[in-house]
Write the structure tokens for this entry.
Amino acid sequence: MTADPALRLRQICLLTKDLEWTSSVLCAAFDTPVVFRDSRMAAGGDLTNTHIRLGDSFLETVCPSDLAWQRSTTQTRLLERNGDCGYMAIVQVPDVAVASRSMAIQGSGVGIVSGAWNVCPGAPGSGLAGIESGHYVLGEPLPKDPGTVSGANVQYHPRDFGTLAEIQENWPGQVDYPGNKGTYYPAGNTWQNGVDARPYGGVTSGFAAVEIALRDADPQEVCQRWMNGLGAGCSIDPAQPTTLKLSAGQTMRFVAPGADGKTGVVGVDLWVAPGADKKFDAIEVCGVKWTLVVAS
């Protein structure tokens, strides 16, 4: 079975103690600017963030506030344990109503950690004025009303998926790129306006793979959980039982921790930008190894 073209690794999230320094390094390394800072996240008091655009995929960096350090949040405890690190893998799904249910029953069956829906009047690229949001209910379909843009995000516990896992559905438009300038809420709703002028920078056009190191879990079992949860035609080659195939040549790899003991998102492969020279083989930023690969 061929994977649905909407089933893609769409975003990686990092966790850092120094948002501006880390974001600046990533922008320089990947030749791309910050396109969005989520004011609603900052208003919550615990986290600030940036999004940089890699083609029509996104690299988010989040940083705890002083208040979060005082409160000792999940993010500050993770930074105390691991230092700057990979934090979350976000996969776009064709139908969040279906995938939210199948993801929720994997592993321990703990269900949704958090989730939200967003609806805004307008079109892709028109901004977020008038946005409404609410708590996502398991199995709820994404509203798709004319004259609006909408999105839903649902998160699941690291103990079942090796890292904080998120699925996303956004409407309208989430398949083809560089023709795709559809909705993608996590990165706001104005990033689309720069796509025609510069589809991607001179280093990479987006994600090829993510590597997730597991704490006290079997890589084959966790790979199977992702496949069962995501559905939509993703597959596992019996010859590579710890690698999940998504669409457009993307993969998710599940491994045992290395000598450094790090778990969660530890590596990301990036497609070399079409027509560009390969700027490096591999670099490490924010505790993650970034490897440039050429599309076959």
User: Anything to note?
Assistant: Residues 19-30 form the longest helix (12 residues). The longest strand covers residues 112-121.
